[in-house]
Amino acid sequence: MSNDLKKVKKLPKFKNEDEERKFWATHELSDVFDVTHGVDVIFPNLRPSTRTITIRVPESLLNNLKRIANKKDVPYQSLMKIFLERLVKEESIQVKHAP
After folding, report:
1. pLDDT tens by residue, 3-57
2. How far is CA 6 from each of CA 11, 12, 13, 31, 32, rounded to the nearest angstrom?
């Protein structure tokens, strides 16, 4: 640690949440942790954010989708997302390699 960086203090043991709350009201995170060097953290189970949309599809298409989903024992909405993602990936590859 270089001389221009302040010395990192030891984090005290708190008796309760109120004591900890009072401590953090008067201290910064950098007072007790060396924040000069970041650490890469991986969150493997994070889900991508989603957005609700409404689409109109022919009843026959919806019925077929539900029938396939039922045979695969998955919700039809999940199966629709799988199919849509697969098709979008395929199309993206084709568009990328198109002249």
Report:
1. 444 565 778 899 999 999 999 998 888 888 777 777 888 888 888 888 999 999 9
2. 15, 18, 21, 8, 10
* Orientation of helix 59-72 relative to helix 76-96, angle to 10°: 100
Alpha helices in the chain (DSSP H): 17-26, 29-32, 59-72, 76-96
Is the CB of residue 65 less than 8 Å from the CB of residue 76? Answer: yes
Cβ–Cβ < 8 Å for 11, 32: yes
Q: Which of 6, 58, 46 is nearest to 28 (CA)?
A: 6
Residues 6+ apart with CB under 8 A from 66: 76
- Per the listing, tokens 């709350």 go with 21
Domain ranges of the chain: 1-36, 59-96
| Alpha carbon distance 85, 91 (integer Å) | 10
Chain-centre distance for alpha carbon 21: 28
